[in-house]
TrEMBL record:
<feature type="domain" description="Insertion element IS402-like">
    <location>
        <begin position="14"/>
        <end position="87"/>
    </location>
</feature>
<dbReference type="GO" id="GO:0003677">
    <property type="term" value="F:DNA binding"/>
</dbReference>
<dbReference type="GO" id="GO:0006313">
    <property type="term" value="P:DNA transposition"/>
</dbReference>
<protein>
    <submittedName>
        <fullName>IS5 family transposase</fullName>
    </submittedName>
</protein>
<dbReference type="InterPro" id="IPR002559">
    <property type="entry name" value="Transposase_11"/>
</dbReference>
<dbReference type="Pfam" id="PF01609">
    <property type="entry name" value="DDE_Tnp_1"/>
</dbReference>
<dbReference type="Pfam" id="PF13340">
    <property type="entry name" value="DUF4096"/>
</dbReference>
<dbReference type="InterPro" id="IPR025161">
    <property type="entry name" value="IS402-like_dom"/>
</dbReference>
<dbReference type="GO" id="GO:0004803">
    <property type="term" value="F:transposase activity"/>
</dbReference>
<feature type="domain" description="Transposase IS4-like">
    <location>
        <begin position="106"/>
        <end position="261"/>
    </location>
</feature>
Length: 271
């Protein structure tokens, strides 16, 4: 019988916490004396537990603190941009350790349910018109997430390309390496080909109506699958399977933390 995991199995490693701690914003000074501020690491572990398990805020185990306190701290850190900074640091560490593969990038969208609605949602054409969210993800050639944006499920993938490229959170080496971008046939439009060309990419887009045939060319590698795999990695964080956050900023913060975890793990910071 498989042993059931407990909350402590989802805690952030000491190595990663050391890096996160250096990015924490200074807490606001208290106007009057009261209870001491809850430990930041405990609170971050609670946020990560919620990200991994997908549980409700009120269902957080109490050893992470009062759920309301954990949520308030999450909001505080979200407004400071902390989760994006963690992801950005992870990318820089990965680039130092492994090297980002800028030569071949890939972009694709994925849709999730959003039963509570809110910003960044729309009727999902693949789910009988139920409310859903679409995330557009850009990765390097190995599937390391470089950018993610969110919009309604009814938003066409092509409409998110510019925003996704603009949202890359570290500087692209635009003049140092030839950059190719893999896209599926859903992006096969003249304006998209021109757009990615304007951004300095060489587009590799399967044409609509073209059969998905095996290409027997020496040295040929399928390259777009890496972004689909990264979407799958994100879905292992159960909070990402369904958008419960009404505020799009909160949903993005969770996405940023998930992308940071994927990146630090790929850099070999922890198992």
């Amino acid at each position: 019988m498989t042993e059931r995991k407990t909350g402590h199995d989802y805690e952030i490693s000491y190595e990663l916490w050391t890096k996160i701690k250096a990015l924490l914003p200074l807490p606001k000074p208290k106007k009057k004396a009261g209870r001491p501020r809850e430990d930041d690491r405990k609170i971050m572990n609670g946020i990560f537990y919620l990200l991994r398990t997908g549980c409700q805020w009120k269902a957080l185990p109490r050893f992470y603190g009062v759920p309301g306190t954990v949520h308030d701290r999450f909001q505080e850190w979200q407004r400071s941009g902390l989760f994006e900074k963690i992801w950005q640091l992870g990318l820089m560490d990965y680039d130092d350790e492994e090297g980002l593969e800028w030569e071949w990038q890939a972009i694709d969208g994925a849709m999730t349910k959003a039963p509570l609605g809110g910003a960044g949602t729309g009727a999902n054409p693949t789910d009988r018109g139920k409310i859903g969210t679409k995330r557009s993800l850009l990765t390097d050639g190995k599937g390391i997430p470089l950018s993610v944006v969110v919009d309604g499920a009814n938003r066409h993938d092509k409409m998110l390309v510019k925003g996704t490229i603009d949202a890359i959170i570290i500087e692209r080496p635009s003049h140092k390496v030839t950059q190719n971008i893999r896209m599926d046939k859903g992006y096969d439009f003249p304006d998209i080909r021109q757009l990615v060309d304007d951004y300095g990419y060489t587009a590799h887009i399967r044409k609509r109506g073209e059969e998905n045939i095996r290409i027997d060319i020496p040295g040929y590698r399928a390259r777009r699958w890496v972004v689909e795999r990264t979407h799958s990695w994100l879905n292992r964080f159960r909070r990402m399977l369904i958008k419960w956050e009404k505020k799009i900023e909160n949903y993005l913060a969770m996405l940023h933390l998930a992308c940071a975890w994927i990146t630090f793990r790929a850099a070999g910071l922890f198992e």
